[in-house]
Amino acid sequence: MTITFRHVIDSLTAGVSRPDPTVDKLDPGSRETEVQGIVTAFAASQYIIEQAAALGANLIVTHEGVYYSHQDQREWLGGDPVFLQKSALIASSGIGIYRFHDDVHRYTPDGITEGLICALGWQDYVTEHRAAVSILTIPSMSVKDAAEMVKRQLAISYVRVAGNLTASCTRVGILVGYRGGGSMTIPLFEQDGLDLIIAGEGPEWETPEYIKDAAAQGRNRALIMLGHAESEAPGMKLLAERLSQQFPGLPVRFVQDRPVFQIL
Amino acid sequence: MTITFRHVIDSLTAGVSRPDPTVDKLDPGSRETEVQGIVTAFAASQYIIEQAAALGANLIVTHEGVYYSHQDQREWLGGDPVFLQKSALIASSGIGIYRFHDDVHRYTPDGITEGLICALGWQDYVTEHRAAVSILTIPSMSVKDAAEMVKRQLAISYVRVAGNLTASCTRVGILVGYRGGGSMTIPLFEQDGLDLIIAGEGPEWETPEYIKDAAAQGRNRALIMLGHAESEAPGMKLLAERLSQQFPGLPVRFVQDRPVFQIL
Q: What does the similarity note say (chains A, B) (predicted)?
């Protein structure tokens, strides 16, 4: 049987109650195109597109957008040469790009959060999955040891940590992507008795300033900020494994991008 | 002559065309209170309030809000113990807090950007001040050397850098606070021939992903992300110097807070 983009997209979105409007879309590409191979990635970056082409894949399933904008606004890119070169590469490659953001976050549990928890090896410690956060009860360890373990498991070179490093933590909230903002994180500490939040990204004047105040008051509340890509790439890796099982005849591969930042 | 909070606020806001609505406000406090001393800071954190009280200051001029929210939304803080303890400290201290955000950004040049440029020692290299960005032409140096110089001048322990570290840079855009987003930064590279942007904070999927693509295309465009507080605290230090000159009889002091994050 010929497998088209439509089959893959239908499989990805089966049973999901999609928000309206959504940022998820196939662009560029036609649903009737036959799939040669699939690459999943955090973002369809220049590097990922080049890798997909080299691997002979003609469908990229990307969590974040292609052009540095959640809503795919492009007006301000104008004649920017990075944009133009990337657009030309995509056009000449013939690769289709499916943005898969909203729907995977609406899996039960959230498919991106689940990927991160799997990568951490913490599946057995989940107390409760909610829409935007998973609550875990992990074996007691210091915040510093938790941070070092997270770095090792995710193979990342650094994390940003707020709070008292020597405090012990066992009740942990995990929030991927841009869910690190104060209105999402701060109520969890009290409501769920959390010691530690592990998040992707969020405004620095919100949760980190709250944690600084908590530490100044002698309270053991801590935050590990992983980085947006670092928190969500594992979910796209898990997705590649699922697609491989659903389409055993297709080459499906997660491609890990380079980190956006170096620490100096 | 008795100097009241009103005199200080009138001095801070003289000649500024204030946006409506604005987040700037005196809360708590009465404009008729006599000033005993002033502390300026990036944020009125637990630590800053304790320091102000210890210094005998009864007016804090803060750039960011007290309760981890730009719009000062407090509903979701509820009975949070960090919030309650901080509120009680503020009430018992009798200290007035003036949020000074929108107006100082509307100074000509932007008072926060000017403070950062002064702290970098780059006043002589300014080509143009605009509302949200200053364009500089600095002596040519590598991105790595620029990052090391910035760390040294600002006395900060790390910066996050995107792009090619060995590329040389001379055309630099400086954007403080949360002006690091793609719609603000990306057009500058082409329009102003920038090699490097130094910013406070911004969404990681915007400018950093753009810089990663630019580097993958072999282009020399780079980004140094300072951190929000790190980019704006120098502006509040400069403000303290100005207040000292305007009110020579008053003790005015900038207090440097601890960084929100450690790198592990």
A: Belongs to the GTP cyclohydrolase I type 2/NIF3 family.
